[in-house]
Every structure is written in structure tokens, then in C-alpha cells.
Design goal:
Layout lengths: L2 H27 L8 E3 L4 H6 L3 E7 L4 H16 L5 E6 L4 H6 L7 E6 L2 E7 L4 H9 L3
Length: about 140
Amino acid sequence: MGNGEDKELERIRQAKLHEIMNKSRATEEKGTPANKPVEVTDSTFKETIESHPLVVVDCWAPWCGPCRMVAPIIEELARDYAGKILFGKLNVDENQRIAAHYQIMGIPTLLVFSHGKLVDTIVGALPKQMLEPKIKCYL
């Protein structure tokens, strides 16, 4: 192959890679089930809880030890229940309006929403075998 053919082949490769990346992004934006927790903020909170049938919001802070213990459990549940339950993470230090509205006094606190309505509040770090049934019962 000549130099011109190599350049053309590389151009085609780059165009195809760009196309694949754009399709992947578009699929994510169209609501492909989240298999990991999504970041929730004061400004996205309402839309998040209203646009999914079952949402669990993990209210946490970076300095909170028990929150760091619960984080891998939340990530595992998000993978296990992708497409059935949306898991979100709300940093209470950065999003104080929502924390105040729901009177979050201790973290970690999980807020469970069914069709946009608060149906349960789970306070404290629980192991997966105790946490999962408390959430799964709302499916």
C-alpha cells in the first residue's frame, strides 16, 4: 500500500471511531439503564426522581467514613438492578437545599422514591444483605 492509501485508511478509521463514540454517547443520553450511580444535584434532583419509577438517592459527603463504606454497596446494587432502580448520589455539602428540604440530619441517608414520591428513608451504613431487601420491596 502506498502512503496515500495509508492516510485514507487512517482517515476512515478515525471517522468510524468518531461515529461509534457518538452513537455510544447518544445511547447513554437516551436512557440506557444506568449501571452505576448517577450524580444528583439541587438542580437535577426533581427531574431525576420524577423521570424514573424507582429511585434511590444516596445522601453522602466525602469526609464521611460510613458513606465511603456504603458507596461500594450502592455501586453493586446499581449494577444488579440496572433498568429497574436508578441509584443517585447527592453530595450534601454541595447540595444543601435538597438536604435541608428532606431534613437530612445524619449521613449516609438513602431516600427511596417511587414515581417521584418519597416512600422510605434509610439512615446509617447497612450491609448489603440488610439494605437490599429494604429497597427491593418497592419493585
